[in-house]
Amino acid sequence: MKNTGSREWSACVLLFAAISALEASASELESVYTVQAPQGQWVVRALTHAAQCPSIAWDGHLPVAMQVRATQATLPVRSDAAQADSKPAVFDVTSCEATWPAQAQSARIEGQVVPAPPKQIQRILIVADTGCRMKASENSFQECNDADKWPFAQIAQSAAKLKPDLVVHIGDVHYRESPCPQGNIGCANASWGYGWDAWRDDFFQPAAPLLASAPWLFVRGNHESCFRAGQGWFRFLDASPYTAARNCNEPANDLQGDFSEPFTAAISEQAQFIVFDSAKSSGKAYNPADPAFTKYKSQLNIAAQLAKLKPESFFINHHPLLAAAPGKDPKKFKSGGSAGLQSVFETVVPDRLFPAGVTVAMHGHVHLFEAISFQSNHPVSLVMGNSGSLNEGHAPHAIAPTDRIYKTAVVDNYASRSEYGFATLDRTFLSGQESWQLTEYTPQGQAVIRCHIQNGKSRCQ
Ligand SMILES: [Fe+2]
After folding, report:
1. For 163-200, how does the pLDDT look when each residue is reduced to its tens digit (9 = 90+)?
2. How far is the CA of 26 from the centre of ligand 1 (A)?
3. How far is the CA of 320 from the centre of ligand 1 (A)?
4. Dist. CA 423 → ligand 1 center (Å)
5. Quick one: pLDDT at residue 2?
6. Structural domain contains residue 456
7. How far is the CA of 173 from the centre of ligand 1 (A)?
8. Residue 324 contacts residue 399 (beta carbons within 8 Å)
9. At a CB cut-off of 8 Å and minimum separation 6, what does 385 contact?
10. What pLDDT band is residue 412 in, cutting at 50, 70 and 90?
11. CATH number of the domain encompassing residue 280
């Protein structure tokens, strides 16, 4: 009798210890999400305050340990840091990862369901330029503490309700570069700098419902270039393996770290995304002797080869090449395409800029929504940088046939919106042919613009 009681007591202690360990471990887990990687692969990521990575259970089988992608570290300020008032970046989370096995249907990490790769994509959700701007060099401080003035959390909630199969972020995830000035209650006590706390508050916490709802495809913005938030980009979001040459820790490696090779991601039998890293691109035309010119030219040539893999390609990079610029007066038109990228792309594909097979170009960077269709042979150009970061002015209400977005580009359909929002692309069929419905929403999830996209042309209502 005494013996049995002792055994029961020991079992209870063991069970209690196991539950405590699980709870302690679970509380150290900050985020679990799935990322689209090159070659059609999907990678599960987990961020934890524990030094060891959690285990992942595929299809209810015994859990197996995830691999460490990046260990916890405090990284010194880079000599070329973008803001004068910088501080060491404290990454007190371990970045962990595991490649999704082709045959696996489901996965759990410490009981938490991991978003599974889509079997078929019907709805793609798009956000860009999501963070809360705190930038001393421009004396620009958004009201991060006001959900209406920085609506990304609201956008992520509304977007998750639409149950997308894939979420695409077209860059500029991290905006909290400088400390909130004393006395500014709009951003008082906001975390800042390039370490985990700023990444958590600017992205992982507000994005949580959307990170849990579907896998993500991340496209890099200028805010994630090496001398800004590049270290966090490689720890958390970049799709390729983490290496010393490509982690943004050493400025001497930036010619590798700032230029990622383009890759494709299939979105249907006949269409694919081509993901292009324009993070470090200049707004001014390049001198062909500039190493960046050579890099971008070579990568566009790779993209042109990739475009041959499917009948239709959607080219995604952060900086628009064919766009109208925001301004104070919505009656005035001004071209807003990146002169730097144009100067490279036009040497590979004169006039059209984008390789054959590219029917749609998708971008962020400019904080508004634009859908531009051309009478000329240019792809539909979509700008969707209005998902949270400080508004920068009005898009022009109209673009006249005489207004020149770029040399030979003649606009024949245009829709714009200057307020905050996000968008979806829904796969549809018209007369047996695949086409896409683009919908622009308010942060609350109300549809406000609808465009039909087919054969490289868009028509918006
Ligand atoms: Fe940007």
Report:
1. 999 999 999 999 999 999 999 999 999 999 999 999 99
2. 35
3. 10
4. 18
5. 41
6. yes
7. 9
8. yes
9. 128, 129, 170, 172, 363, 364, 365, 366, 367, 368
10. very high
11. 3.60.21.10
| pLDDT tens readout for residues 62-96 | 999 999 999 999 999 998 988 888 999 999 999 99
Q: How far apart are CA 294 and CA 312, in angstroms?
A: 26
Alpha-carbon span 161 to 445, nearest angstrom: 9
User: pLDDT at residue 210 above 70?
Assistant: yes
Instruction: Provide, for the chain, the percentages of residues in helix, strand and coil under a 3-state DSSP scheme, each rounded to the nearest 5.
Output: 20, 30, 50
CA distance 204 to 201: 6
Would you say residue 96 lies in a domain?
no
Mean pLDDT for all residues in the chain? 94
Dist. CA 150 → ligand 1 center (Å): 16
Report CA(300)–ligand 1 centroid distance (Å).
20
Q: How far away, in angstroms, is 211 Cα from ligand 1 center?
A: 21
Distance (angstroms) between ligand 1 centre and the Cα of 277 equals 12
**339-348 and 291-306 helices, crossing angle to 10°:** 60
How many domains does one find in the chain?
1
Range of 156's domain? 110-460
Grouping H, G, I as helix, E, B as strand and the rest as coil, residue 216 is strand
The answer to whether position 334 is within a domain reads yes
**Considering Cα of 230, then 235, then 239, then 243, what sign does the dihedral take?**
positive
Separation of CA 393 from chain center: 22
Q: In what order do the strands lie in the sheet containing 358-363?
A: 263-266, 271-275, 312-316, 358-363, 380-384, 369-374, 411-417
> 220 CA to middle of ligand 1, Å?
9
| Angle formed at CA 215 by CA 213 and CA 221, multiple of 5 degrees | 115
For residue range 141-153, list pLDDT tens digits in order. 999 999 999 999 9
Q: In which residue are the tokens 């000599």 written?
A: 79
pLDDT in tens, 274-318: 999 999 999 999 999 999 999 999 999 999 999 999 999 999 999
Look-up: residue for tokens 């990862």? 97
CA distance 437 to 433: 13
In a domain, 87, yes or no: no
Q: If DSSP codes are grouped into helix, strand and coil, which group holds residue 55? A: strand
Amino acid making up residue 116: A
Cα(284) to ligand 1 centroid in Å equals 15
Cα(228) to centroid of ligand 1, in Å? 12
**The predicted structure's pLDDT at residue 7:** 54
Residues in the chain: 461
Q: How far is the CA of 222 from the centre of ligand 1 (A)?
A: 5
